[in-house]
Amino acid sequence: MHNILLSILFSTLLIIIFKLFRKYEINILQAILINYITAAITGFLIHPFYLSAEAWIPVAGGLGVLFVIIFLIMAITTQQAGIAVASVAAKMSMVIPITVSIFYLHEKINYWQWAGITTAILSVFFISYHKEKMKKNIWAFILPVLLFLGSGLIDTSLNLIQKKWIDSTDFIPFISVVFFFAFASGIIYLMIKRKQAFTWKSIMAGVVLGLCNWGSLYFLLHALSGSGWQTAVVFAINNLGIVLCAAIAGIGLFKERYSTLNYIGLALSIITIALLSFQ
Fold first, then answer.
1. Tens digit of pLDDT for each residue in 135-149?
2. pTM for the complete prediction?
3. What is the DSSP letter of 168?
4. Closest CA to 220 of 269, 266, 151, 267
């Protein structure tokens, strides 16, 4: 359980940091690139490793490219639509890996957990619904949809890779390689676009972001492999916890306003976590 809680903590910090980017005028792309090289170096320093012809390297490369794209979309969504909408759009995508786990990996869940997954989907919808924002800005709808699909693809890929390709001894090398490929692909994009030079402000923001990013992925992979719970339950609890914490942060730190429907979603999320805990 502690792995899930730590994953929730670091993931929530990621969303909060994204929200602060506009206030402190941080260059999003620069910070994201520094974030990835920071995360890759962190993994290597914690657990030095040497690579040979691991079968998962090409997969890690593709996942790294996807990470850059989705991270950019998440940052922009957080600024355009708000912290709650961004977190919910990313974490409602849990329905994609959950569906794959049940119908492809043939994982079995009990009636309480089925009920919890159902209320989880309802709760994230209720929390994310902001009628006025969607009326004023079409991107408040398009960006969350893109974030939903991309996050679902990432979570599904991580789950299948953890089940089929790597074991616990490969966690840190795999994570570090994914982050390195994300950094490399981002640098190539930056060179093509010929963007401005890195600033110290963006570098420092990227370092903090990278430490949180590394922690969120590391503890999620450990939760998937060592919690004793089904994949569907781990994703549901993890993602719902992030949504709940991000919504609380939005209220407490950024004074974001929520409707009655949003608060119903928050209440449902607490009920969901209780339901999913039944074994």
1. 556 666 678 788 888
2. 0.78
3. G
4. 151
